[in-house]
Design the sequence.
């Protein structure tokens, strides 16, 4: 399922550390970089490439928040709502993004999860701090940091989310044309 | 209260010497300012023991939280042959903390020089920088700086033409606060679930891959080149010996006009200076009154507004009833509901508990549940005692400090703001439902 280039990179990771198992986390991230998330088959493929048990790879995958157990669409927008960000309006920012996705922007028990109806983008309100508290409110769009957000001026951010969502839809349509699974 | 002039305005920052800068200091610029001269001095003119002794007598204490003597920690590593490792803790996930990020993004060579000197001192030939996965910019810049240093013969084989060699690997995490706990960090690096180990054995004896390992925070390591370049005696003139020496970065966030990283000599300013000083926070946002300050992110007790004269160093913050920890100062104003704030902090610990110990795994959930009902006006008077007794059943009865951290938002807010809790119960709702 993984491309030859990614398989090669994972094999190289396997040589980098004093013990092979240390290569698991970086390798899972490489696989996710290609696929967008970590389906079970991909987790198994990574373990096989490194000569490690599937169980070892699954244990890691299920622990870390950055390793994705579901297809999030074209982007995950993580909005930090921990104290320093909350004090500067982070929850309103999250609600605006959720509204833009046409999803429910409720935050309960310190958590919000908003998915666009067609699955092309996901927004998450999280209690995790991302080290941008001095530039609050903030969010991450995949790996990009968006800081000093202004709830009344989110146009650029929302346009970026739309762009990534559109790319995702286009990839899906292309896959269908080629006769594969979307 | 308005802003005021702050003292110590002639202080020259050492760890973040380029405030406001966006691009990293590259090798040529770092070298031109005397960079890597300390490493040269260490490997050519000093024995390992001399380096350790110098750092020990500088008084440098860990900047990652616990404040343990760096030199002393290094001296626990057994001498003699066999693999040893340095692991730099760059997991920086404590809410309110963003200092290591700026060191790595802007001053990557300062960190690398510290890594090389420390590795030499403990006899490590492989060092890891364990960086949280979200810090991709910092990690990429570190990788680039390592490459630059290798090309120039400052890292890698035959470092500075000596027979010492050192490789540095940047290891990227994947989103788990617990990986900042040093033994969880080691588990993560070994490719296992990052659950803390029980101690002894301590990492200095049996750490990464069961080999002697030193774990130090990024900021701690960034102090080392300065100590070696200018000596322990000079270092001690910053701050007050023996307990509070050296420079310290303060992370300021929350309801202030100018949040950011501010470097000081330990003890040279008070909490009031930090919030209201012209060179620091420049006062409260919208001129509101200050309610409390959290000095160590969400992990140590808050300090109420009547203790603003506390000096900012290890002893000063302890005397004010808390801990300096990571020196992440979160400022709360009078408009913030204290129960809501405590709940948000506890939700963090519930989310981040690794689940290994029952009191922490279950207890953080219970704390959040009871706080949630008080916040939403559905609590009763007995809930305050319930919260305190829950906290008591976690504190000191778990494997790592996360469980203890989780209780401090609850215990400290009830201690200082009991009336506000009771108001929720009497009114049947939160008196201040908005955040800001
Ligand atoms: C839950 C938890 C999280 C921690 N997170 C960090 C962290 O992100 N960075 C850090 O340097 N130390 C962190 N620490 C402290 C480390 O365990 C360790 O004491 C520190 O890295 C030692 O380095 P130092 O002596 O230079 O401070 C954490 C501790 C606990 C219990
Ligand atoms: S105290 Fe909590 S975080 Fe620490 S080891 Fe136990 S369960 Fe894990
Ligand atoms: S609290 Fe939001 S980035 Fe730190």
Sequence:
């Amino acid at each position: 399922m993984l491309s030859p280039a990614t398989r090669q990179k994972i094999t190289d990771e396997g040589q980098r550390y004093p013990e092979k198992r240390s290569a698991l986390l970086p390798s899972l991230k490489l696989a996710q970089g290609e696929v967008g998330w970590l389906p079970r088959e991909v987790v198994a493929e990574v373990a096989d490439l490194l000569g490690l048990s599937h169980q070892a790879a699954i244990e890691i995958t299920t622990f870390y928040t950055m390793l994705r157990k579901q297809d999030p669409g074209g982007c995950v927008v993580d909005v930090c709502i921990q104290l320093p960000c909350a004090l500067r309006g982070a929850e309103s920012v999250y609600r605006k993004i959720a509204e833009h996705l046409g999803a429910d922007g409720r935050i309960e028990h310190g958590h919000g999860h908003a998915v666009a109806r067609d699955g092309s983008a996901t927004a998450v309100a999280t209690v995790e701090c991302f080290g941008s508290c001095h530039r609050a409110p903030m969010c991450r769009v995949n790996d990009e940091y968006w800081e000093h957000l202004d709830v009344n001026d989110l146009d650029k951010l929302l346009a970026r989310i739309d762009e990534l969502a559109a790319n995702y839809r286009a990839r899906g349509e292309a896959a269908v044309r080629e006769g594969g699974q979307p | 209260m308005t802003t005021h002039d702050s003292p110590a305005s002639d202080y020259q920052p050492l760890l973040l010497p380029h405030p406001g800068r966006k691009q990293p200091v590259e090798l040529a610029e770092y070298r031109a300012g005397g960079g890597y001269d300390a490493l040269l001095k260490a490997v050519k003119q000093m024995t390992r023991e001399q380096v350790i002794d110098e750092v020990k007598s500088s008084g440098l204490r860990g900047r990652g939280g616990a404040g343990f003597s760096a030199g002393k920690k290094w001296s626990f590593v057994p001498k003699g042959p066999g693999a040893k490792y340095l692991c730099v803790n760059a997991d920086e996930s404590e809410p309110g903390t963003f200092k290591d990020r700026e060191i790595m993004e802007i001053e990557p060579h300062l960190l690398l020089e510290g890594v090389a000197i420390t590795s030499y001192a403990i006899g490590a030939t492989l060092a890891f920088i364990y960086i949280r996965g979200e810090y991709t910019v910092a990690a990429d810049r570190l990788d680039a700086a390592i490459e630059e240093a290798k090309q120039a013969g400052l890292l890698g084989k035959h470092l500075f033409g000596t027979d010492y060699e050192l490789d540095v690997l940047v290891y990227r995490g994947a989103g788990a606060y617990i990986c900042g706990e040093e033994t969880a960090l080691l588990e993560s690096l070994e490719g296992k679930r990052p659950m803390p180990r029980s101690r002894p054995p301590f990492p200095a004896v049996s750490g990464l891959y069961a080999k002697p390992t030193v774990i130090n925070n990024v900021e701690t390591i960034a102090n080392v080149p300065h100590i070696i370049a200018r000596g322990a005696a000079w270092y001690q003139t910053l701050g007050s010996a023996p307990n509070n020496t050296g420079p310290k970065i303060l992370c300021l966030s929350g309801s202030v006009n100018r949040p950011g990283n501010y470097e000081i000599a330990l003890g040279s300013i008070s909490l009031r200076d930090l919030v209201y000083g012209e060179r620091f926070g420049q006062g409260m946002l919208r001129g509101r009154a200050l309610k409390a300050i959290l000095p160590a992110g969400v992990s140590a007790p808050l300090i109420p507004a009547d203790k603003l004269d506390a000096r900012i160093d290890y002893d000063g913050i302890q005397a004010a009833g808390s801990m300096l920890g990571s020196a992440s100062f979160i400022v709360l104003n009078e408009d913030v509901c204290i129960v809501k704030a405590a709940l948000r902090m506890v939700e963090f610990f519930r989310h981040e508990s690794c689940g290994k110990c029952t009191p922490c795994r279950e207890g953080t959930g219970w704390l959040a549940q009871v706080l949630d009902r008080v916040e939403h006006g559905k609590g009763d008077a007995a809930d305050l005692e319930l919260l305190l007794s829950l906290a008591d059943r976690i504190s000191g009865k778990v494997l790592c400090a996360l469980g203890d951290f989780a209780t401090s938002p609850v215990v400290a807010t009830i201690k200082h703001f009991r009336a506000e809790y009771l108001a929720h119960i009497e009114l049947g709702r939160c008196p201040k439902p908005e955040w800001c």
About this structure: The pocket of flavin mononucleotide (ligand 1) is lined by residues B 62-66, 68, 89, 91-94, 178, 180-182, 215-217, 220, 400-402 (CB under 6 Å). The longest strand of chain B covers residues 247-254.
